Amino acid sequence: MEKTRMYVFRNLDPEEPIQTSGYICNFEDLEIKSVLLDEILKDPEHPNKDYVINFEIRSLRDSRALIEKVGIEEASQFIEDNPHPRLWRLLAEAALEKLDLKTAEQAFVRCKDYQGIQFVKRLGNLQSESMKTAEIAAYFGRFEEAERMYLDMDRRDLAISLRIKLGDWFRVLQLLKTGSGDADDTLLEQAYNAIGDYFADRQKWVNAVQYYIQGQNQERLAECCYMLEDYEGLEKIANSLPENNKLLPDIAHMFVTVGMCEQAVGAYLKCNQPKAAVDTCVHLNQWNKAIELAKNHNMKEIGPLLAKYASHLLEKNKILDAIELYRKAHNFLDAARLMFKVADDEAKKKTKPLRVKKLYVLAALLVEDYHEQMKNTQRGKIKGKKSEATSSLAGLLEEDASSSDNRIIDLPWRGAEAYHFFLLAQRQLYEGYVDAAMRTALHLRDYEDIIPPVEIYCLLALCACTNRAFGTCSKAFIHLESLESISPDQRQLYEDLALEIFTRHSPKDNKKSDLDSFPESGEGKLPTCIVTGRQITDYQFWMCSTCKHSAQEQQINKFSFCPLCHSPLV
């Protein structure tokens, strides 16, 4: 090959040269594909299709010329003398154009084109010439022409079938809508869904939704709503589906992935999968709902799972999270135990007394919830058979039988009481009510197991000394000096301070009769007013409906909330 000449040899005989400067890329089916590399390399970033050139060799050109100018028979004889599959295919295509089916079939056989043979046989079964012409036009890719012929023959069904084969669903839908007769509903749905798929593949979810709605494709519509974050629409789809529909678990899983517990549970229950609903609640930390579902469906595995999760939180020292977990799961007693532990730890750290009091109040409220839960349980068991008092008594008996921690069950408010009176005594002392402060401080003697005794008797000694009740003050100093928990240096300081006080003042109370009448702790002890710290001797007094503590009516009228448990006054 010279630089600008291309020779094609047939056996040892060269054909006339072709003038070209292209480089040979491919030689197949009597066609040469060449590339103008010199032109491409001038601007390699922007190649042009014109730089790829196809050349037909002489035999192909001659066969084409014979077909066009002389006829099928002469061309067939020429191809017979110069056989090649490409030439036979060329003859077959030309014969099809002229509806010479016999010659076309023979040519397809010679080039071993099985598809072409079948097509010719199908054409032979058609009676209408125009139908054959339309089929041939479609065979050669002239689809617009074929469709027009079908419509001219009033064969809209064939035009639709052609467009379905091509995957042109937009045109299918147009043909279905423009027809004079009623469109096939099944075919319409298929067209709508196919167009919806077209838009979904291109992530045009809004457009896809419109067609999926018309195609009644709930599965793909749910996927689009999920991608569009249209969870309200997704919920409507779930509500519209019949029970046990195969799509419901998928929709429920979509809700789970975005943390929508209630909707996911509804979908799972609708398809009769309560275990999956419980697992969802556990996964999303909705333990209260999980316990409720487990009880309603008689499932027993939620208890161990709850304990396992609580242990996991406690190992990570997330005690408050564990308390909240137990509370949501209605395991009030376990939550109360943990809350009492938190309150005790805070008290040992000498945290602000008000904070400690609030923690004890929270723990006590959890115990009250437990009491109410036990009463409701028993009330449900014996509903309609016994009185409310009997059911309450049964609930209390069940508590005694099931509880191993009597301190928490029987005296839940003891810690809150201790710090309430501790704060009240100091508040009264600083406001100048020294006698009331001393009386309130005297109550603290019953709470040495909660508040450190050194703090109790220091406060009592201070209040008594300020109130000039030196007898009570002397007793407080005696307790302080006898404590084993204080250091010798600290004990010496107390002794020195007591010596300094009682060398000036006789250790006697000025209001001896009042103090002597102050009752010691015992079962016959009168209720104490949580507002003033005084004992209540009136027959009528106010009692809190939550913590069951009392106050004088004229004193509690100043408050909107209970001073101890902070619940609203009824």
Structure commentary:
The chain is mainly alpha-helical. Helices cover 63% and strands 5% of the residues. The chain contains 31 helices and nine strands. The strands form four sheets. The chain has a three-stranded antiparallel beta sheet. The protein has a two-stranded antiparallel sheet with strand order 1-4. A hairpin with a 2-residue loop joins strand 2 and strand 3 (13-14). Helix 21 runs antiparallel to helix 22 (353-381), helix 25 (414-431) packs antiparallel against helix 26 (434-443) and helix 27 (453-466) packs antiparallel against helix 28 (470-482). The longest helix is centred in the middle third of the chain and has 29 residues, at 353-381. The radius of gyration is 49 Å and the shape is elongated. The protein starts with a strand and ends in a 14-residue tail after the last helix. Mean pLDDT is 81; it is low at 513-523.
Pick out its properties:
570 residues, single chain, 3-stranded antiparallel β-sheet, mainly alpha, 31 helices, 9 strands, two-stranded antiparallel sheet
Output the strand order for the largest sheet. 5-6-7
Question: Roughly how many Å is the radius of gyration?
Answer: 49 Å
Mass-distribution shape: elongated
- Helix/strand/pairing class, anyone? mainly alpha
The tally of strands reads: 9
Mean pLDDT: 81
Report the helical percentage. 55-70%
N- to C-terminal distance = 111 Å
Task: Please mark out the parts with pLDDT under 50 across 5 or more consecutive residues, or reply none.
Answer: 513-523
Largest sheet: 3 strands, antiparallel
Discrete helix count: 31
Fraction of residues in β-strands = under 5%
